[in-house]
Each structure stands twice: as structure tokens, then as C-alpha cells.
């Protein structure tokens, strides 16, 4: 059965990419070009004038060219998805796919660039040499440990935001999931013990991000193919500099030893690596993030057979709590580009994480439920992070990232020039005319500050609607119904807003 499904998927995927026009992205002119005069402005002789302006003031490239909304997705194909080192050219469909996601979710234009070199020095120099073309650089599918040095040095050598998404994307999204899961399981970040399965780029980035969120480094055990990464292995010279940062003060052991009594499992390895016995040995109310794709380290149904108190996340869309990088990189670059940030800092990543965690607690609009077969969604064990098709992520995350860059002083926009409300409205405009019109109507209604009566106030949908209106300060809700029942339902739904 599996082979049949794989064969069908292979055919569909190949047909999808082969259908004319081949590939997934193309360049589209943004200026009129149908007359001789317009062509003379677009190219010779008119094009000389913006060239001269930029030669005199390089920052004017943001005024006269597409630089400010252009990101390079760059790879050498040495660590592609689950395919490994398949080479630069073979990685092109992935890079085009990344471009499609950046355009679809954040309206960012993309050039995908595949560099056919494996030497880190040559790769770094090539990227730095072409960096002036772009407003940002997304590094992709570069193998560890070279990827750490490559990202650091390119970021240092350029004045635009640079991010290796394989490292930071999963860290940012799973960090948001961790914040909410810890809260729901009534645990504390500085007390939880975390086991990280895998020791690649994503594992190190996630572990560092969790430390920044409040997890104690000493409470993290990382497990590679040889077992727990320990001080004794460090003393024996078995660890590189990246693994050394997470060498634990414990006895050597295997994954089953690390997981005994652990609060959190973060799987970034391969399918089937974790057993039910391992999960059963975890602490009360465990948190299991089994993020290997396409097959998790352990399937959710296997976890639930031995632990009915677990909060579970995977990288798959067919289970609750999908940790998907598309919730991160488009919006991080959107926010960074819009304030012309010179880097993507830890503060900006933290802002992205916290914005996603906060958005998950908001009432979920009906259009999102409709996109997922009408499934009921509310903050709780099966909904700890927003869904990828939640259009609000653009507004919440990009604005949080932009604000963090401005406050940190690494943006070209000053704190005095930056208006969070105005920027959020600009982001809404990117979502289309409907959002802009709705914003205008909402602002008018908000100024009137009316009290609105909601009959059947003990109905779940009515409470959700009232919560959304109250949260946006559109009105003061009056809920009609049994007071005790309404209060109990609001508590169960994790809503807290003023009503009569």
C-alpha cells in the first residue's frame, strides 16, 4: 500500500513540476512597458538616472530597485531535506519551493541561487560578493557543522538580514509550542528537563533557543548516534565544539536512559527511533515533539496508547500541532525587510516565538477551521501553535520582528519613525482589499464603543464571537444566559475578557 502511495505521489509531484511553465517561480515586470517611451525609462537612456543616484547614495537602491523586497534563497545542496548531499542543481526544486512560500505567505520576491561548491570559504566568498543585489539572504540545506560558520561569517560580512532556516526555523516554531505546552502542563521552563534526539544544525539551534527562553542548559541532554553527549565523551575527544556546549554532567548512556523522568522530548532525528517504553518512562504530563519527517520518531497514536497525559507535536499536517517552518521564515524576513534590519538577531527570533505563542491563545476565525475540514480549534493540548494557513500570522509575527529590530537599534527606521499600529495596517493591506475595508469599518465601530447584546450567551460560537470583538475593542459584549454556565465555559475555553 505504501509503495502504491509513494508511486502516486511521485507521479503527481513530477507532473506538477513539469507542467508548463516548468518549475514554480518566474519574474514578472512591475512597471508599465508597452510603449517605446516606457521602455526608454525602464532601460536606456532613462535608467542612467537611478544608476547615478545609487552611485552617489547606495541606500537609494532601496528607492529605485527591487532590493528592499528581494531575498536570495541560496544553497549548495549538501544537506537537502531527507535526501542528503544531492548537489547544487538537484536542490533547485527545493529552493524554488522556498521562493514560492516566501511569495505566497509574505509577498516577498525571490531569486533561488544554487552554488556548485562544497568548500566553505569559496561558498562564503561567492555569497558575500553577490549580496548587494538582495535585501536579505535565506541560506538553505547546507550541511553541519560547516553551516554554523557559513551563516556567522556571511552575516558579519554583510549589512542585510541573513538566516539559515534549517537551524533557526524549527527553533522558533517549536519554541512557541514549548512555551504553550509548558504552560498547559503546569510546568516551569527553568525546571523542565529536555532530551534532544539528534545533533544536527536544527538540534543545536533549538537547544540554544530553548536556553534563551529560560530552559537551563544543565537540564538539556542531547543524544547522537553514539548515545548521550556527556562530559566524559568530551574528555575522550569524541565531541566537536558544537556538541561540547551540551556535554551533560551524567553517566554515558543511550536514549532510553536519557528519557527516564524527562519532561520534554524534542525529536530531530529519524522515524521510529523512540519506543513506547521510552515515552512511558517520562515524567508526568510529558511534552513530546516528534519532528522527524515524513515519519516521526514515534507516531502520536503510539504515544497515546501509553500516555494519555502527553502534549504531542509533529512535523505533519495530518496530526494536531504541526511544527512547520512556514510559520517562521516568511514573516521573519517580512518584518526584517520592512524596517531594513541589518541582521536577524536573537531578540528578533524571540519576538517571533512569543508572537506565535500569543496568537495561539486568540480565538480562531471560522475561515481557518473551514480550511481544516471544520475542525474545532481552541487553545489547548491539541492547539498550541497557529495553523500555517492562519493569515493573522503575517500581522502578528512580522510586526513583532520589525518592532524588535527597531527597539534593538539595528533597523534603518528609528523608534520615532516606527508606528506599530500603522505597520500592522500596512501588513493587513498586503492580505488584500477585504482586510483594508474591514480595518476601516472596525476603526469606525471602535470609536463608537457600543454595548452589544448576544442572545444564547452560553453557546460556544457566541462566546467565541464575543471574545474576538472584545479583544479587538470593537464593542462591550453583553452575554445573555446562565451566569455560572457562561463563566464555566469561558474558563474551559481559556477566554478572559470583560462582559456583562
How do the helices and strands line up, and which of them pair or pack?
Layout: H1 2-18, H2 36-42, H3 48-56, H4 61-64, E1 70-75, H5 92-106, E2 109-114, H6 120-130, E3 136-139, H7 146-157, E4 162-164, H8 165-184, E5 194-197, H9 201-213, E6 220-224, E7 227-228, H10 231-235, H11 241-244, H12 255-259, E8 264-267, H13 276-280, E9 287-290, H14 300-306, E10 311-314, H15 329-338, H16 346-359, H17 366-371, H18 392-408, H19 420-430, H20 433-448, E11 450-454, H21 460-471, E12 475-479, H22 483-492
Parallel strand pairs: 1-2, 1-3, 3-4, 5-6, 5-8, 8-9, 9-10, 11-12
Antiparallel strand pairs: 6-7
Helix pairs in contact: 5-15, 6-7, 8-9, 8-16, 15-18, 16-18, 18-19, 19-20
Amino acid at each position: 500500500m505504501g509503495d502504491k502511495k509513494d508511486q502516486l505521489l511521485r507521479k503527481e509531484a513530477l507532473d506538477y513540476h513539469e507542467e508548463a511553465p516548468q518549475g514554480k517561480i518566474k519574474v514578472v515586470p512591475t512597471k508599465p512597458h508597452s510603449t517605446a517611451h516606457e521602455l526608454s525609462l525602464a532601460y536606456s537612456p532613462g535608467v542612467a538616472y537611478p544608476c547615478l543616484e545609487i552611485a552617489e547614495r547606495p541606500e537609494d537602491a532601496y528607492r529605485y530597485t527591487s532590493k528592499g523586497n528581494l531575498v536570495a534563497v541560496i544553497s549548495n545542496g549538501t544537506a537537502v531535506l531527507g535526501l542528503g548531499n544531492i548537489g547544487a542543481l538537484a536542490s533547485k526544486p527545493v529552493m524554488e519551493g522556498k521562493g514560492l512560500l516566501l511569495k505566497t505567505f509574505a509577498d516577498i520576491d525571490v531569486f533561488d541561487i544554487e552554488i556548485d561548491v562544497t568548500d566553505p570559504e569559496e561558498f562564503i566568498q561567492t555569497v558575500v560578493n553577490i549580496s548587494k543585489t538582495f535585501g536579505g539572504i535565506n541560506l538553505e540545506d547546507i550541511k553541519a557543522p560547516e553551516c554554523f560558520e557559513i551563516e556567522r561569517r556571511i552575516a558579519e560580512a554583510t549589512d542585510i538580514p541573513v538566516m539559515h532556516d534549517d537551524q533557526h526555523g524549527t527553533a522558533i516554531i517549536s519554541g512557541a509550542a514549548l512555551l504553550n505546552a509548558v504552560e498547559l502542563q503546569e510546568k516551569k521552563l527553568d525546571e523542565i528537563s529536555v532530551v534532544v534526539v539528534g545533533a544536527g544544525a536544527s538540534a543545536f539551534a533549538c537547544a540554544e533557543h530553548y536556553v534563551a527562553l529560560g530552559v537551563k542548559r544543565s537540564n538539556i541532554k542531547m543524544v547522537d548516534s553514539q548515545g548521550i553527549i556527556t562530559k566524559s565523551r568530551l574528555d575522550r575527544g569524541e565531541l566537536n565544539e558544537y556538541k561540547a556546549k551540551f556535554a551533560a554532567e551524567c553517566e554515558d548512556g543511550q536514549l532510553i536512559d536519557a528519557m527516564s523522568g524527562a519532561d520534554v522530548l524534542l525529536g530531530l532525528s529519524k522515524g521510529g527511533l523512540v519506543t513506547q517504553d521510552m515515552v512511558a518512562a517520562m515524567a508526568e504530563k510529558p511534552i513530546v515533539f516528534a519532528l522527524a519527517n515524513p515519519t516521526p520518531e514515534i507516531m502520536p497514536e503510539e504515544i497515546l496508547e501509553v500516555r494519555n497525559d502527553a502534549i504531542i507535536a509533529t512535523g505533519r499536517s495530518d496530526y494536531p500541532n504541526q511544527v512547520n517552518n512556514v510559520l517562521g521564515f516568511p514573516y521573519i524576513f517580512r518584518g526584517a525587510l520592512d524596517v531594513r534590519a541589518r541582521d536577524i538577531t536573537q531578540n528578533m527570533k524571540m519576538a517571533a516565538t512569543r508572537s506565535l505563542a500569543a496568537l495561539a491563545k486568540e480565538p480562531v476565525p471560522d475561515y481557518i477551521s473551514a480550511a481544516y475540514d471544520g475542525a474545532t480549534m481552541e487553545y489547548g493540548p491539541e492547539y498550541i501553535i497557529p495553523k500555517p494557513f492562519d493569515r493573522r500570522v503575517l500581522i502578528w509575527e512580522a510586526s513583532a520582528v520589525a518592532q524588535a529590530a527597531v527597539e534593538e537599534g539595528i533597523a534603518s527606521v528609528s523608534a520615532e519613525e516606527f508606528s506599530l499600529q500603522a505597520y500592522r495596517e500596512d501588513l493587513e493591506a498586503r492580505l488584500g482589499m477585504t482586510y483594508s475595508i474591514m480595518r476601516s469599518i472596525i476603526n469606525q465601530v471602535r470609536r463608537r464603543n457600543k454595548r452589544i447584546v448576544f442572545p444564547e450567551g452560553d453557546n460556544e460560537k457566541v462566546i467565541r464571537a464575543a471574545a474576538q470583538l472584545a479583544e479587538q475593542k470593537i464593542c462591550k459584549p453583553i452575554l445573555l444566559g446562565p451566569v455560572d454556565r457562561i463563566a464555566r465555559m469561558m474558563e474551559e475555553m481559556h477566554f478572559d475578557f470583560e462582559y456583562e
